[in-house]
Amino acid sequence: MLIVEPKPIEEVLSFLEGEASIFIAACGGCPVGAEVGGEPKALEMKAQLENAGKRVTGYITIDFLCNKALSGLHLARHISEIEKASCILVLSCGVGVQAIANTVDKPAYPAFNTLPMRGVPGVWQSTERCNQCGDCLLYLTGGLCPITLCAKSLLNGSCGGTNNGKCEVDPQLDCGWYLIYERLRRIGRFEILKRYVPPKDFQRYMPSAELRNSRLWALERKGA
Amino acid sequence: MSKIREKFERGEFVITSEVGPPKGTNIEPVLKEAEELCDRVDAFNVTDQQSSVMRLGSLVTCYLLKQRGLEPILQVTCRDRNRIALQSDLLSAAVLGIENVLCLTGDYTTLGDHPQAKPVFDLDSVQLLKVARGLMEGHDMMGNELDGKPTFFLGAVVSPGYEPIELQLIKMEKKIEAGAQFFQTQTVYDVKVFERFMEKASKYGVPIMLGIVLLKSPAMARYMNENVAGVTVPEELINELASVSREDRPKKSVEIAGRLIRQMKDMCQGVHIMPLGWDKYVPAVLDEAGL
Fold it and tell me: Given B121, B168, B177, which is nearest A196 (Cβ)?
């Protein structure tokens, strides 16, 4: 299980600037445990977006967004609503956002930050990876994680070590920034690449006392 | 003021070479080699643990060059130091009178001789440039005011042979926006590749120096083709180098490098020669290039 917390609505609205119509995909798995998931939260987000003048073309709750087969089946039933949307706002951990990004050719934006659990990796069905950095940047890449896909976790584009789309660290690895470049081009958000991304706040990699005392670790201690 | 900056501003062609600090304390030969080139070369890049191989530091080597009246260019990578150490080193450089700073991301740790090391990459090259410019403006990256501010002439790198070139150009633009005042390129052996690159890059109005690594042998050229990102040595050049005896290779290498520089120098504002130990041939290369 991964622990998530909603991003401030101001941050969500800032990266949704320029996106007029939005489809909401909410995870009904782990986020429910963190009390930020499921249909109630999808509806809450819908209201907040509409308040801000956005058009919400539809929403969906999927038990575990990271299960791409399951998500694909569910999303297929909402295809016309998704087609009407310029992007998808995903209420899930970083894995779920990436799973959606790899299923639908529309920008997938994260509504949550995935919190660091230090050694508690969670269980997910998809191949996408989340480092639980506590400050999700998937809105800058169309939904591919530069932290896990780039060996150096670079934030402002590939280094000079990319060779034919492969990484200098291991020629069998794809260059994460090459994948991001291709994706942004495919989904018509190429301009995002030109944006300067400031250094990461590594304080967020440190699990908070609240998290340590109230979540899984606390439960583990109780069980012992 | 930085001599290379002055030269760029006067519209003069700038020539730089490279100094690789030794693995150990035996610094004298390296300094001597640089000194012998001082009439022909405007400044010397000092590599920062090049290829992730642990060596004597770049900062102190720059200082020693400066003491001998040579102009250093401090290479700073993001591989080994976090944002605190990087900013501190930049301030140290300024106090030692080192103005030219080339900001790079750095090779990954596993490519060097300490593959077990923890890779840092707290900042990337674009962020490092912005941080350095912030220091020049009198504040650290948190906005705290500095007691005395440094002056830098900030450089960055770009790879003209990188595919797709669009990605390099976007990053180049970001680097300029962040504070880069001049560029040195990855080595280029194909005039057409450089021409294509300069057609797009010259519009930024920032001085660009053509990078040239001296080709020492056909095997080295093939190795670069297979392993060095964004570098392609055309088959004709490899054959040309292979056509002479081992003893004649330096002469051939000089001829090739000189010819390439001669063909490309009018497209750019300077040349950066990376001799990789063949420092003594640099004057001959420049002669051949007509510089």
Answer: B177
Residues of B in contact with A203 (CB under 8 A): none
DSSP output for chain A: ---EEEPPHHHHHHHTTT--EEEEEEE-SHHHHTT--HHHHHHHHHHHHHHTTPEEEEEEEES-TT-HHHHHHHHHTTHHHHHH-SEEEEES-HHHHHHHHTTSSS-EEESEEEPP-SS-----SSS------SS--GGGTTS--HHHHSTT--SSS--TT-BTTB-SS-TTSBPHHHHHHHHHHHTT-GGGGGS--PPP-GGGGSPPHHHHHHSHHHHHHHH-
Q: B-chain residues within 8 Å CB-CB of A177?
A: 167
The CATH number covering residue B256 comes to 3.20.20.220
The answer to whether the Cβ–Cβ distance between B230 and A151 falls below 8 Å is no
Residues of chain B with pLDDT under 70: none
- pLDDT (0 to 100) of residue A117: 81
Is the CB of A151 less than 8 angstroms away from the CB of B108?
Answer: yes
Dump pLDDT digits (tens) for A8-36: 999 999 999 999 999 999 999 988 877 88
Best of A131, A137, A163, A200 to disrupt the B interface by mutation (most B CBs within 10 Å)? Answer: A163
Select the CATH number that applies to the domain covering A3-141+197-202 from these four: 1.10.260, 3.30.450, 3.40.50, 1.10.10.
Answer: 3.40.50
Q: Flag whether residue B140 sits within 8 Å of chain A, measured between CB atoms.
A: no
Domain ranges of chain A: 3-141+197-202
Give pTM, 2 decimals. Answer: 0.95
Which chain A positions have a beta carbon within 8 Å of B78's beta carbon? 152
